[in-house]
What does this fold into?
Amino acid sequence: MTIKAYNTIHEATMEWHPDDDIYSYYHVKQAIAKLSGIDLITTDMCINTCLAFTGPYAKIDHCPQFGPQLQALWCHLDHTEKMHWHEQCTWEIFEDLGMMEGISSVYEDVLHGKEYLDACQSGKIKEGDPVLMFSIDGAQLYESKQLDCWVYIWVLFNHSPDQRYQKHPKKPKNLDSFIFPGLHHLCAIQAEGLPIWDGTLNRLFISNPFLFIATADGPGMAFLTGLVSHHGKMGCRLYCGLPGQHKLVGNYDHPYILIHQLPSVRSFNYEENLHCIVCCRNAAEYESACLDTGITKPSIFCSFHSDHILPVPHSFDSDIMHIAAINAGDLLIPLWRGTFRANPMDDKATWAWAVLIKETWKKHGLSIADATLYLPGSFDHPPWNPAEKIHSGYKAWEWLLYLYGMGPATLYGVLPDPYWTNFCHLTRGLHLMQQYHISHSELLDGHQHLLDFTNEFEEIYYQRHCKDYNLARVIVNYHLD
It folds into this structure.
């Protein structure tokens, strides 16, 4: 029971029984300690759980954050070898590009990306520099409440992918104020240099950590970038400059655009548009500029020196996890169940794809539940019966296993063509794109499958009719980024 809950019950009881001697929360703790013989020992700790202020840290009054942590990673021989991984990998990538005429034979990590390789060639990332990713996400602590806990982490790209990730309040009104201390500390050690002792080579060198990328989910990314949300007119997360599609009464705000006509990623002029925002003289000008540019404020990441970060907004990525898992499921399953909130003039009786209804939906759910017995333990948590649990906390990993692991087989013969084939294009494309290793030919193959999925989806589900734009959610084209 929380302190707040106990105090609420205590106050309510005392209101009806004012003469009763009921212990306060503090006195209850004191009584328990006396009866059990166990006393409470309080130790201060970093609010980010970096360390507890005990032993050699007992006399400090602030968290040393990740500077000493980065230095410590270079001292031990085992850790030093891991820190050299990305340098060896980068050298192999450049060697591969030289032999393959500028085209990688395989793609398996962010180090194969053009932005990273350009930063290395220009000298922005040099030998020994930590290459960092910033990531933030919200957590829903209670089932019926909004996100009320926000956590951000630093990820070190110097380590190989299998070494980077190890298991071990209310929504902020000003998120920048919470992440400022960590970003300020990073800016300082980027500018001053971080002395590091390389335990393998027995040498001291000065390192300048490079902030390579920042990630977040949709709501979190709007805070980081200073851009409008996806509901805004210029709501593209990758800042391509294409206005969002919005249905008007009787007509539409722009014509249909084929996927081959989509502008390139981040082709909108961010610097010029940001200048328009900061030069606004009154609220009216600001609101108009926000609408036209899709920018609400300068990002806090603009404060980094350009030598130590990819330029904003290139330093922010897309959100393939939520798009491929949760968002895709929220679109496809309601369509196939006939529960999708469609145009009132649309007759759902004509929906040839709405087959997961009544007993068919229940049988489909049982087939998923029965199949989980045969999934390897390495698959982690198997998906629950979707007919019973899909609306009560289906996680991203469950969506991925359900849709793209078990979906094609369990929907075969249930979901009619061409809808099943269209879904298989999406499945195959995502299978390829989410591989640990992906060759150049597989990259092209995966991209083509996603193009085929998008083109066919728009044709077979709503025939590209403007009145049915709500069927073309962002996820349909988002896979192409």
About this structure: Residues 440-462 form the longest helix (23 residues). The beta strands are 106-107, 131-139, 149-156, 194-198, 203-207, 210-216, 438-439. The CA atoms of residues 278 and 297 lie 8 Å apart. The chain has a mean pLDDT of 82.
